[in-house]
């Protein structure tokens, strides 16, 4: 079993700080329940269509430097609502061997619905899937 060093990530554009704090707390509780190591966390009060977000880039930098090998969010749209931006983020995670874990949705199904599943799986063979499948024996689809 892979030992996941997790960055817990929460984002909302709504000006409701308690709801954003609860979103992050839920992600962190789930990471703890699954036995993951929580390395860092962040909350963003930004629109999901924006790409240049300081907390997003802090998380990506941690992935790039190998400090974390997993990013955990409630659902795919917590990273971005923009498909191009989302694909760039997922491709980046895949390039660095990091996985994305969602707590409230079936990530593989979300990727399928957005059309990103096949794009990620059709990348060069040395790339592993970017998601974790809790129902699968080895954690991969």
TrEMBL record:
InterPro entries: Resolv_N (IPR006119), Resolvase-like_N_sf (IPR036162)
SMART domains: Resolvase (SM00857)
Pfam families: Resolvase
Domain spans labelled Resolvase/invertase-type recombinase catalytic: 6-131
A molecular function (GO) term: DNA strand exchange activity
Protein name according to UniProt: Protein containing Resolvase
């Amino acid at each position: 079993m892979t030992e996941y060093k997790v960055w817990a990530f929460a984002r909302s554009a709504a000006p409701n700080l308690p709801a954003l704090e609860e979103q992050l707390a839920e992600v962190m509780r789930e990471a703890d329940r699954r036995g993951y190591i929580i390395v860092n966390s962040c909350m963003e009060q930004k629109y999901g269509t924006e790409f240049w977000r300081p907390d997003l880039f802090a998380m990506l930098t941690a992935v790039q430097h190998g400090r974390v090998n997993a990013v955990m969010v409630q659902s795919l749209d917590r990273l971005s609502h923009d498909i191009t931006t989302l694909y760039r983020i997922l491709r980046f995670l895949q390039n660095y061997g990091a996985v994305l874990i969602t707590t409230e949705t079936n990530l593989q199904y979300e990727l399928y619905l957005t059309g990103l599943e096949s794009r990620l799986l059709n990348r060069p063979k040395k790339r592993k899937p970017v998601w974790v499948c809790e129902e699968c024996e080895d954690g991969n689809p």
